[in-house]
Amino acid sequence: MSGAVLTTFVVLLGSLGLALASTPSSYSWVYTYPTGFSCDPLSIKQFGADPTGAKDVSGVLTSVNSISNFDASGIIHITAGTYLVAKSIALSKPVSLSAGAVLKIASGVTLTFNSPVAAPSSSQIFSGPGAVKFGFGVQASVYVEWFGAKGNGATDDTAAINAVLAAGDSSLNVMFQAKTYLTSGPLMVPSNAVVQAAPGAMVKGKSRLADAFVFQLPTAGGIYIGRQSLPALQNHRRAITFSDAGIIDVYSPSVSGCDEAVRVQSTRAKGAGRQISQVRVEVPKLDNVIKVVNFFDKNGGAVMQGSNFRFGTYTDSGSGTALISFQASGGGWAYWDSNDYHFDRVTPAASSSANKLVLLACDVSTTLYRQNLYISRLDPLPAGGRLTNANIQDCMMVVSASAALSAAQMALPVFRSGTVKSNNFNNFMLTAPAIAGLTASTSPNTRASFNGGLPLTSSLFTLALRANKPSRDPRTGKTPADGKTWPAGEARRFYFYHGLAQNQQLVYVTVPKIGATCQPSGVAITGIFDNSATVPYEVEVVAVACKPLVVADVKSGKVNISFPVLVGTVGTD
């Protein structure tokens, strides 16, 4: 008998066929319950504990916990049966529970463990309306099954999961196995809990009316420790919610069939520490999500900034309305500032009048600052889709489109405060399939004859000049006489049409060696002007011949005046 008592806790657990949850990455422990012992391990039944659940065993547990021959490494062993705990107690010795052993905690009672607990990973070991607490730093991990979660995709596991999440006094790893857990209400994750899910784990909503994981700090201050590795999330109203909670890192392998994949919200009263920053989210796969990230401020004035969201693929089945969305309800607007969003690929639903996917959307007439959206591949937007409907400033949108966008999809709104127009300083970098043979027009207001009447939508393209006749000199209001040559030093004006030249926004156009330096083609590009205030989408290019050029040669292409152009918006409206 002494050999069993002196065996260390970890070794004894192995011999008993039990799991001591230790690290988030360990999901494959295999134990074989022994057929017999040279002597039976001491159990609370040997001290009179009732295994039927009819009589309170809190006194027995307290006695066994304090028996002198149970030294610091002694173990309280609980064999199969249901044991009623009707009084609040704290156990200082390690506890091991066999398969079928359940501690039933009465209402209003708290059972506290100040040493580790070990049990089979798929066994329920706690039941009843009372609470279970693990002391500071004593328990590395707990399984949601220990609190009654079934993970069979049919039984509602909401209460069991929330009981686990509330059980820790310090950083407690809450383990989800490779099962499907059905839930009907929010799963509230306190700052002292760390969710760890095995590959293949899923939390599925019983209906699409309830939230999944909610990270919420009830008062100002506090941070989340460790990376939250959530299960896959399916069929929820909101899959991941940050409610007045920041400084947190969350991962989920996928989100599907949800109204919102991520919600960042403030619901606290004004002056109650409402700054949500340094939120980091990574989700490799998104399917059938109405809004990917939705910001919401209930009372106005909250600060939501400095967060990073990284997504793999987003595939919409027709319900999607926005990749990134901003909402508020009363009390003024939030300070939405300095957030980054990355998508590997965005695949909108097929074009239909009902689908109006907006990449960056805002439901209120406030200004969004420094919202930076990067999309490595944007598949064709539906006809009703667009880049943004928001008033944005100091924002960046870098999008590589698989098909050219329309001018309507690129339309940038203009908001006013009273009679004063707001300023917009933004950077749009749009890449679309190359268009060959782009030649600038030699007369203004000639969009119909340029690129089939369609404004360009790609930021980078190559433009050619064909100087078949001189253009009007705006300084004199006259058109020079046509001649066989383009004299050295003469400025001629050419016109092209781009979707970003709109709403009187200044369009920046970068041409290599712009200025007085002559290009190999024999011209210098000395000026670029946005004419969209009077002619929609029109951009004017001023070129000066560095040497006499034969007009016929320029027109035929023997003198190839072509150069790459980079277009974006960086101005005021």
Automatic annotation (TrEMBL):
<dbReference type="InterPro" id="IPR011050">
    <property type="entry name" value="Pectin_lyase_fold/virulence"/>
</dbReference>
<keyword id="KW-0732">Signal</keyword>
<feature type="signal peptide">
    <location>
        <begin position="1"/>
        <end position="21"/>
    </location>
</feature>
<dbReference type="InterPro" id="IPR012334">
    <property type="entry name" value="Pectin_lyas_fold"/>
</dbReference>
<protein>
    <submittedName>
        <fullName>Uncharacterized protein</fullName>
    </submittedName>
</protein>
